[in-house]
Amino acid sequence: MIQARQLPRESIPRESAVNRSADDATELRDAFKAAMRRFAATVTIITVGDADSRLGMTATAVASVSASPPAILVCVNRAASIHGNMQMGTPFCVNLLGRDHECLSLAFGGQVATAEQRFSVGSWQLDTRGRPYLTDAQANLFCVVDGKLSYGTHTIFVGRVDAIRLHGETRPLIYGDGRFIDS
Questions:
Q1: Cα–Cα nearest to 159, from 57, 64, 88
Q2: Higher local confidence (pLDDT), 127 or 5
Q3: Which pLDDT score, from 0 to 100, does residue 113 have?
Q4: Burial grade of 180 (CB within 10 A; 0-12, 13-18, 19 or more)
Q5: What is the largest CA-CA distance in the chain?
Q6: What predicted TM-score, i.e. pTM, was given to this entire model?
Q7: Using CA atoms, how far apart are residues 40 and 180, in angstroms rounded to an integer?
Q8: CA 145, 134, 102 angle in degrees (round to 5)?
Q9: Is residue 102 within 8 Å of residue 180, measured between CB atoms?
Q10: Is 112 helix (H, G, I), strand (E, B) or coil?
Q11: pLDDT tens digits along 16-59
Q12: Nearest one of 86, 4, 41, 71 to 178, comparing CA atoms
């Protein structure tokens, strides 16, 4: 077992010291955002829709929940265009991006304004339930909303996976510290 060793306070560099009793909520929020930039994560695009209307957003706040039943969680800001559909329980797809999908990540991350313009980037199809999926994604996880929890500015959606599509070799697009990282 590895024991944690506490450093004397004066040996911790000032810029990296954690102020656990911060009264200033803004300071704590800024420090939290800086810490979260250090979490490297696979980039995904979450999509909902049908033949008439499609929505999607780039996300890294996606995680496995359970293998039995297969489930994942996705965190969606309530201000995101996709949020209303997810809140209503619309089936969705999580598309795991590969290294060659940077332009897709940027398009669905807000650099392309409208949903139709976003879906003009990449090769998209609809599954039998109308969920848009990226045909050359590392993996597509097709989900139905099985639970949700509102917290702060976001809603955490639990997606029960009802189908999976795998494509190509494992070469994920990784994002951390505000940039794409070579894996």
A1: 64
A2: 127
A3: 79
A4: middle
A5: 61
A6: 0.84
A7: 9
A8: 110
A9: yes
A10: coil
A11: 555 554 468 889 989 998 998 899 999 999 999 976 889 999 99
A12: 41
Give the phi and the psi of residue 29 in degrees, each rounded to 5: -60, -45
Does 31 fall in a domain?
A: yes
Q: Are 47 and 54 in contact (CB under 8 A)?
A: yes
**What distance in Å separates the CA atoms of residue 130 and residue 104, rounded to the nearest whole number?**
20
CATH of the domain at 126: 2.30.110.10
Counting Cβ atoms within 10 Å, is residue 131 exposed (0-12), middle (13-18) or buried (19+)?
Answer: buried
In a domain, 104, yes or no: yes
Using CA atoms, how far residue 21 sits from 25, 42, 157, 165, in Å, is 10, 32, 31, 46
| Boundaries of domain holding 108 | 23-177
Number of domains in the chain: 1
1 part of a folded domain: no
DSSP string, 22-75: ---HHHHHHHHHHHHTT--EE-EEEEEE-SS-EEEEEE--EEEEEETTEEEEEE
Q: Which amino acid belongs to residue 45?
A: I
Query: Which is more confidently placed, 65 or 2?
Result: 65
Task: State the Cα–Cα distance between residues 119 and 134, nearest whole angstrom.
Answer: 9
Residue 116 near residue 129, CB atoms below 8 Å: no
